[in-house]
Specification:
mainly alpha, 174 residues
């Protein structure tokens, strides 16, 4: 589809410098995988081009960074040369927060804020709290774990569960 191709190249040219910089910053220990992660990130974006183009620049960049980070951790864990290397999601997740503007402003300014608020309010309080602390208060998973007196893995699992629920329910409602 020529329209989709044009949309892809527009988005690619707009965000690839930022995503490439993010890749250099986050993949310095695994440079041999950086290009693969970048390619898989762009491939993962193909079904979401319309949605991505409708986002503000900050949200689109955060979405790209989060997708990149998820793919990076997966490929690093699968790479035989990285055996024995400990890679945590937090190494990647902190960059997502550092590289974007305040999500609370984004949510409040968005037409979909009511939908998002309803989805978040429908979540169990423990998941909702972790989501809020990480995304809105910009706390790391280690900071949240310390403040809530929970193991790091519990905090990370709660965030993943809440984030997945938010994305899934939001896409269902669209």
């Amino acid at each position: 589809n020529p329209v989709q191709q044009d949309l892809f190249w527009t988005i690619y040219h707009k965000y690839s410098p930022f995503l490439n910089a993010h890749a250099r910053k986050k993949m310095y220990r695994f440079l041999h995988l950086a290009e693969d992660v970048l390619q898989e990130t762009w491939i993962a974006m193909l079904p979401h081009l319309d949605r991505l183009s409708a986002m503000t620049e900050e949200c689109a960049a955060a979405y790209l960074f989060a997708t990149f980070d998820r793919i990076a951790v997966k490929l690093i864990k699968e790479d035989p040369s990285a055996q024995g290397t400990v890679v945590s999601f937090e190494e990647f997740d902190e960059a997502v927060i550092a590289d974007r503007t305040d999500l609370l402003d984004e949510i409040c300014a968005s037409e979909t804020s009511r939908q998002i608020a309803e989805i978040i309010l429908s979540m169990p309080k423990k998941d909702r709290d972790v989501l809020r602390l990480h995304l809105i208060e910009s706390m790391t998973f280690h900071e949240i774990a310390k403040c809530m007196h929970l193991p790091y893995k519990t905090v990370h699992k709660r965030f993943q569960r809440a984030n997945n629920r938010l994305v899934t329910k939001f896409l269902e409602e669209e």
